[in-house]
């Protein structure tokens, strides 16, 4: 959330805040700016939504979805910078930063690179040891965070397909996104209730689902979030902040 620029463009954020339990707010590198960070955080606090920092690569043109070859030290530095900014914004508004969830290419690269994952985990802990690191289920983001004593939340994706190694299908591939709300909801329910997902090659992959990611910039993001929330509650699956 908070992925606008310049003049405040609310988009789906205000409506989505009424449907979710935690929000990942852009910290100015891949999207957002100081004013948008403040306004989006105000929305979250108003709706009782846990605030998370969403640090990414410094790539506004590519929306943080293009790989960049940064060293672990450079990744640590950009994460401290962005998480620290979000920490200050939340504190200034009388709230408390709840978690950190890397964005886009940084997230996907760190999921498969132990050194990058450790850099993000260490940056998170350096800002505050009580922060929770959200990371792809079964990835280095989870294992490296646990290794240094951080709390973690294993994340699964509602609207993305999976490879048989548990990674997300790259957006460059035509089958990366799940367009059907029905299919996305079915995938989420399977991941929560069965602890597994069907990969693009038909294999069943085990995973752990602590938190479900939905993208606020989707064409039907609000409708999808409402439908997913409704279906989960119908199955008596409790929705709450970790």
**CATH homologous superfamily label of the domain at 13-156 and 209-218:** Glycoside hydrolase/deacetylase
Question: What name is given to the CATH topology of the domain at 13-156 and 209-218?
Answer: TIM Barrel
Q: What's the overall geometry?
A: globular
In order across it, which strands form the biggest sheet? Answer: 1-2-3-4-5-8
Number of strands: 8
Low-confidence stretches: none
Query: Total number of helical segments?
Result: 8
| Radius of gyration of CA atoms, rounded to a whole number | 17 Å
The helix/strand class is alpha/beta
Share of helical residues: 40-55%
Strand content: 5-15%
Q: Please summarize the sheet with the most strands.
A: 6 strands, parallel
The CATH class of the domain at 13-156 and 209-218 is identified as: Alpha Beta
The CATH architecture assignment of the domain at 13-156 and 209-218 turns out to be Alpha-Beta Barrel
Order of helices and strands: HEHEHEHHEHEHEEEH
What would the average pLDDT be, to the nearest integer?
93
**Terminal-residue CA separation:** 19 Å
């Amino acid at each position: 959330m908070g992925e606008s620029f310049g003049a405040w463009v609310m988009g789906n954020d205000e409506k989505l805040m009424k449907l979710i339990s935690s929000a990942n707010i852009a910290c100015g590198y891949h999207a957002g700016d100081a004013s948008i960070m403040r306004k989006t955080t105000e929305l979250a606090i108003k709706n009782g939504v846990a605030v998370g920092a969403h640090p990414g690569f410094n790539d506004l043109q590519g929306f943080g979805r293009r790989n960049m070859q940064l060293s672990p030290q450079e990744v640590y530095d950009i994460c401290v910078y962005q998480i620290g900014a979000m920490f200050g914004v939340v504190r200034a508004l009388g709230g408390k930063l709840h978690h950190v969830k890397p964005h886009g290419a940084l997230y996907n690269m760190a999921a498969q690179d132990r050194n990058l994952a450790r850099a993000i985990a260490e940056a998170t802990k350096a800002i505050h040891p009580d922060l929770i690191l959200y990371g792809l289920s079964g990835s280095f983001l989870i294992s490296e965070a646990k290794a240094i004593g951080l709390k973690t939340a294993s994340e699964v994706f509602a609207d993305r397909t999976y490879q048989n190694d548990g990674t997300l299908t790259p957006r460059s591939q035509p089958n990366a996104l799940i367009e059907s709300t029905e299919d996305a909801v079915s995938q989420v329910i399977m991941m929560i209730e069965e602890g597994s997902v069907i990969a693009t090659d038909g294999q069943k992959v085990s995973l752990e689902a602590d938190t479900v990611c939905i993208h606020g910039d989707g064409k039907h993001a609000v409708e999808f979030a409402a439908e997913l929330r409704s279906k989960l509650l119908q199955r008596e699956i409790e929705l709450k902040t970790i």
